[in-house]
Amino acid sequence: MRVDRAVIALTGRLVITGDVPDDLRGKPLLMAANHIGNLDPLVLIAACRERRISPRFVATGGLFDAPVIGSIMRAGRHVRADRGKASAGEALGKVVNALTEDANPVLVYPEGRLTLEPNMWPERGKTGVARMALAAGTPVIPISQWGAHEAMCYGMVRVESAHDLWVLFSSWLRAVVRRPTMRVHFGAPVDLSDLAADRVGDAARARDRIMRAITEGLIPLRIDEPEAPLHHDPTRPVTDKPSPWLSR
Prior knowledge:
Blueprint: H1 2-11, E1 13-18, E2 30-33, H2 40-50, E3 56-60, H3 61-65, H4 69-75, E4 79-81, H5 90-101, E5 106-108, H6 128-136, E6 140-146, H7 162-178, E7 181-186, H8 202-218
Parallel strand pairs: 1-7, 2-5, 2-6, 3-4, 3-5
Antiparallel strand pairs: 6-7
Helix pairs in contact: 1-2, 5-6, 6-8
InterPro entries: Plipid/glycerol_acylTrfase
Protein name: 1-acyl-sn-glycerol-3-phosphate acyltransferase
Pfam families: Acyltransferase
């Protein structure tokens, strides 16, 4: 976390609003954030450090298999989720166990990937985070962030060569010169008290509340960019599906 803080301080300016209520600290807690760029996990870690929180990420299995970073992920007790495999469903049980075994919160990306929404608003998201929260009976803190997409380009889906690494690294070097402002907002806990893990449809209802809370927190962070982002990343692909969480 100390190294991360130095990297983010070098990259740009970090602005944090909101906090985690004192009565939720030291208890099982899920945190759900929008996913906008390759560097935003480091931005979230730096923001959490400023708020005296040490989050554990639910992350793709490939990170755990990578040299160096894999050992860091395992030592930090982050939670592995293998995408597109039969074991993907095991992530829910792993998170529930992680919440009961450690007082540090678990941070999840409900969208499951970097957003490809045309204007970088949150995508529909998956019900996994909602199921985790309902199964564990834990509060959910929505986290909204903006600006980290300017710190490193999307690049490619899989890094396979030194050139691929250079595309990412060179975009970060340009950000160091520009020094973008990276904003993170910790929202109020999402009320899921009337929902149950074993009731049909409640996981989708919980997902909808979580995604709306993230979107509502994001609106003031990008008040000057309500439509298309001012920063253009030619490497980022987009879908033709607009965010369902904006009131138009």
